Amino acid sequence: MFYPQPARHTRFRQTRVLIVGCGDVGSRAARLLLPRCRVLALTSQADKAGALRQAGIVPLVGNLDDSSTLARLAGLAKRVLHLAPPPGHGATDPRTAQLLAALARRGGVASFVYGSTTGVYGDARGALFDETRTVAPATDRGRRRVDAEARVRWWGRRQALQSGTRASILRIPGIYALDREGGDPRERVRKGSPVLTQADDVYTNHIHADDLARACVAALWRGRPGRVVHACDDTDMRMGDYFDWVADHFGLPRPPRMSHAEAATTLSPMQLSFMSESRRLMNQRLKTELRLQLRYPSIQNGLA
Asked: What φ, ψ does residue 297 adopt, rounded to 5°?
């Protein structure tokens, strides 16, 4: 596994890394960076500052929806990991726009990594493809991410000319881990949430939260300018088969199956959208460019 080179003993000479959106994955990335780097995290909730300090992270209270709170970010860190989600509505991402504007005021960012989503592709009908595929989002959720990616690319090209910044993008599928809140697949199986019949089932992609954190750290040092990388494992499995495996492995009842037509009248639009997009992602850039050796190359490894 790649780690940044140990910094000099003086803390002020340590590489500063700013994590924007320091939730589960951000916290895992921070643990990899500490104590070799000085890690700072932007949080909109002041009551989380204490927990961040206990983890060795310097908290910065600010809100991506309020540009006046972001001025202090200018020139603060050489490397920035942006994992904060866009707003929950609309087709654009003003949060990313405001963050990039704040960082551009003084420049000096050596690398910027944006955590996007594989939802930017929409439904690929099970096709296997790499990062050169044209995006075709089918939902506003995906369109917000496409908008953010475009802003990151434009900002990255401009900052590259001024200060040599390398801005790269990780497209992230479903994140799982048994110790991740909302990412433990056993919970869905225990709830009896339905999956699609074999005839209607879709391919889904996955990444263990620890491997994603390692990919984020690797991208901060090895990400190429303007480059997109699929941050996914090697699993090639349909959604229903995935949850059947989870049920069998942990001794739980298999989830019920329903047709897509039945799902359309039963499930929420959000649930249905995840069951309406089928794609299989190639991850060669993750392995060759970021030189990441997956600790959990399949969900069977990650959940064993």
From this structure: -70, -15
